[in-house]
Amino acid sequence: MKQLMFEDDVQFWFETLRLFGHAAYGGSDFGEVLAAASAVPAGDYDSWHDAYRALADRLYAEAADAGPVTARDLLLRASTYYFSSEFFLHGDPADPRIAAAYDRSVECFRRAGVAEPVEILYEGTVLRGYFYRAPGTGPKPLLIMHNGFDGSAEELHYMGAAAGVERGYHVLTFDGPGQPSAVRREKLVFRPDWEHVVTPVVDFALALDGVDPARIALLGVSLGGMLAPRAAAFESRLAAVVAVDGVYDAGAAVTSALPWSREEIARRAQAEHDEEFDALLAAGRQASPTLRWACDHGRYVLGAATDREFVARYLEYTLDGGVAEKITCPVLVCEAADDLFFGGTQETEPRRLYAHLEAPKTLLTFTAEEGADAHCHVGAQRLAAGRIYDWLDRTL
Questions:
Q1: What span, in angstroms and rounded, lies between the C-alpha atoms of 108 and 123?
Q2: Catalytic residue check, 222
Q3: Could you say which of 79, 84, 105, 222 is catalytic?
Q4: Per-residue pLDDT tens for 284-325?
Q5: Is 2.30.170.40 the CATH number for 116-250+317-395?
């Protein structure tokens, strides 16, 4: 999609488009986002925080005196804007603005009352999420959803959970390690062996009333497009898996921009010292708004002390070595025609994943003509949800 704002900062533009897209299911209002974004200079993280924090605070205050439906709508949008306000602050995890905005985001979402909060037992602690119960009686299919590198369980309401309930699906969303509630409250950072995360979630799902155990599907968004297939390779109780968008090797987003082989990058990233690599990453930060943000956030959610350590850990997120070939359930691989993070090469990450699958598989490409060519189709969320659920209907 043509970049309409933040001409020199593609990362700010993508996050703005993401906010625009949430309007499809009540997570934003176009004019509100446009007004806030227009007040933010490109690359200014503090101004971004201040603009969206002020917008969220205004809606939060208005909800106190609103009728029930109006209050729900105001709280959902406030939840989105609070979360967005702290999105670019993770270079300093001790920044008090992060917890203040995130906690208010979750409060607003829960007060909106659109889903039942749940806690899933996980390795001596809990993973937090939400259960959406479809109307009617009798066993129904269940879609388990998780986000990726930087999204939340709350955001999934607009990226497929609300759409599932409309179509007669129960939906279970959750934050896994490295994702907002887990990293903020339990200090759990990402892990590549995602099957150890999904298996207790499936255990939890099977204990829910009205879930058809033969029709449980898993959907992962963004980095979740690698994590969900990884889990499906080892979790046999899944009837289908959806990768939005497909990722075979997450590290390709980094290695494709560096002048060495993947093996050399891994060796240098793990070295005790490498001043040349450090200098290259520092220069990349100055040149690329996306790399600047990714390194800040990546250190936070992977538990890395330096940018180079973040790269070393991120290279572990791959389906190489025969993992993709282990999947036996049907797989839907979604692809964005102009993906900011996992496109730009002749063989995109979704197509790499698709080529390695030996299970029944479908590749679904979203295009610029549809307004859906951005990463995870954030600009066309109703279109994407419709096609994904239609595939699930046919598959399950």
A1: 28
A2: yes
A3: 222
A4: 999 999 999 999 999 999 999 999 999 999 999 999 999 999
A5: no
